[in-house]
Design goal:
mainly beta; two-stranded antiparallel sheet; 4 strands; globular; metal ion binding
């Protein structure tokens, strides 16, 4: 399995909107972190769809090593 690129060693705080879909970058290559911009092509990774059920702030993983995708679980502290 491929290893993702670490985009940053902290989460991205994002205000999400109820009813909207977000596509979290799994590969770490996207220039529009934490979301996909298509840079994963040929990497073996695909983005993860997240559907927001409510307006809230989420902390999307920046290191791409979370065990609770797409949200940060503190894995960046162990890298």
């Amino acid at each position: 399995m491929n290893t993702p690129t670490i985009a940053q060693r902290s989460p991205y705080a994002v205000a999400v909107t109820a009813g909207k879909d977000y596509f979290w970058c799994r590969c770490g290559r996207s220039a529009t972190q934490p979301f996909c911009d298509g840079q994963h092509k040929g990497s073996g990774f695909t983005p993860l769809r997240y559907h927001a059920d409510e307006d809230t702030t989420l902390y999307f993983c920046g290191c791409k090593h979370t065990q609770a995708p797409p949200c940060c679980d503190g894995s960046h502290n162990r890298l």
